Amino acid sequence: MNIDQVIASWEKDPEISGNLTSWVRTTPKQADFSGFPQNLETILTQNLLAEGIHALYSHQAKAYDLLKQGKNLVIATGTASGKTLCYNLPVLDTLIKDSAGTALYLFPTKALAQDQVKHIQNLIGSQTPTDIIRVGMYDGDTPTAHRSDIRKNANILITNPDMLHQGILPHHTNWKRFLSGLRYVVIDEMHTYRGVFGSHIANVIRRLKRIAAFYGAFPQFVLTSATIGNPEELSRKLIEMPVSVLREDGSPHGEKNFLIYNPPLVNEQLGIRKSVLQTSINLSKQLLAAGRQSLIFARTRRTVEMILTYLQDDVDQSTRKLIRGYRSGYLKADRREIENGFKSGKIRLVVATSALELGIDIGELESVLMTGYPGSIARTLQQAGRAGRKLQSSLAMLLAAPDAMDQYLAHHPEYLTERNPEAVLIDPDNLSILLQHLRCACFELPMSLGDRFGQAPQDLIENLLEVLVANDLLLKQSGKYFWVADQYPSAEVSLRSSSTAIVTLRNVHSEGSEIIGEIDASSASWLVHPEAIYLHEGESYYVEKLDLEQGICELSQRQSEYYTIPAMETTIEAFQARASQDYKDWGKALGDIRLLMQINGYRKYRWLSNEIIGHGIVNLPPHHLETIGFWIKLGEGTIEALRGEGLWLSDANDYGAIWPGLRQKILVRDGFACRGCGARPDPSQLHIHHIQPFKTFQDPVMANAASNLVTLCHSCHQQAELSVRVRSGLAGAGYALRNLAPLLVMCDHEDLATLTESKSVLNDGSPAILIYDKIPGGIGLSQRLFEQHQTLFQGALEMVSECPCQDGCPACVGPMGEEGFGGKAHALALLRSLL
Hints:
By secondary structure, the chain is of the alpha/beta class.
């Protein structure tokens, strides 16, 4: 079956078509051609003709003209529109005409960089003398023996931001020839430079421009981007120069089909839907059987491995060879093998994270399944655009997960199909990031009083320089600042995470051990904590030991009936309000927040059924997050009104006057030991836990029956509370607000988080809901929520009200049943009180 036949069969299948909430067909489009530029070097014209290219798309010709006029350019055309030729052609033409000229290409991933080498080689062709265009790929995999030759000879350098930051700029004297002739800087996939990463990149570009100017070079910048809401604004913040934006797209495409599928309800009362993972597996098996090459996107590394495991367990041995996973954590050689196999067609189905989202040309790929909303409109369009990169028909389907954001989109598909993509936000002047790169800049070249560092405020730069002097990192002499510390500052600055450390994953067995992958230290506590089940290439591994100091994780391969999910405890350590406003019975505030975050346990989930079958305790060092937050402070009037209607469950439990004696009786019965793990701490550290939550009883005598009470230590008590809890209106409202907020401010789902507390320091011991930027230092998301609180509350109220469940589910205020007891009516009452 071809892809058109697959689409037709799905349209006739009531199990599929009956659960589609949106189907958008984009009709085929013919190409808009333009002739080759008149002044294009003859050798390039000949090579284009040899490659079967007899004309340029109109936007490629326009890009050539704009760059030849000396303008900086942002190419913001669609996926698979030929953006690479937009810059390769003018760059190669310039370098052929100017033998001393050079060009720097920056790619966010090594796979993209390797793809680019092939594009340039195809365009150079066999007829171009090898001494005219000399391409060098310079990254962490480049052999040491080759690096000197690349520095001496390359006039096109292909690298990544990390290598530019740590391997080139600090050693710029070795690159004098290259930097002196720098004519172009190409920044590919600009939309990936967002948040902390993008803010770092903007400062790396400041350093690059400063050093290039030192050698007398003032390069043009070419940036490419997927569809985002603010390509001009983002590019101006990244390079701090005027830019021209090219949006008109002259490339052709076949028919595109974009579908939103919402798995059917299997329990309407509890709001439980058919598994989105199982749905993606069933549909991908149909595509495999039809002979169609497909790509499944999953939101997390764990989900990739779960889908891969289910798929490989569900097909025969010969079909397993056609299915692979792809994500960070795999070894480089494995990733290259998967990429090449997918491009050649040898691999027919890949399950991947967003690591395969960027512009690697897969060629014949016809279908994409997205297992859950990727987190933004821009990323949804980017993932959908992986299919149909040639002129064939294509299929992209978003499979809605059961959580609130996905269900909102399933019921309001116009948000995805009719709204503009999100704006990408960065803050190059974030104090923490700016100070780190100012240290690097001073190491690279002394800084004088009055020197600019990009468009950062001059008084701020001077103040930060004095801070570095006071800390004995700089010496101030005759109006200049010189680096005097022994440190190598760029080695201490990670562009992509808060940690530069890597944890090596070592599979230990009776015959020895071997490395199966690696993971950044900041993710290790979450994915490979002690006793975790770690999934890799569809195989299960049990974590025997995690040593964060040494960067080693020891695992053993074993079959497991369950997988693990860690639990994190978040505590507010300090806060300072910047702005606040009080209303009749509640208030709002915006300010700086310092949070302590610690993984203290995990839950075991049975495969397929997702039933919780156990818990575990983890003791790992905590980490801190300093950021910006928006918090809602509930007043006594609001609480009293809800309490009077029986719609407030966040008060502390009143166990009655008999509780101290009853507590002692249960401790004696249980031998002053934790019934969970057997620990015997000081009796004052033991807790008496209600097996069925106290609040679910009308009669406190029945709640306090000895059969409903058990002795637990602090850690086991926390785990038990996670497993069975009463979902209050406060927690339910917080859940709804947290899931709707990213849609309102148009950011990634992972950029925000919430914390609900019935006794919060943010509200003098009264209830509060905190929504905060998960990005260190913040990038303005909380501020936008603070300013648009009314729209946020109204949207959350609509989302919860429209949900068909009886008393709470993952699509509105959070799950009930095994996870807790109700909360929907309480959350609705609280949201109405805020309006």
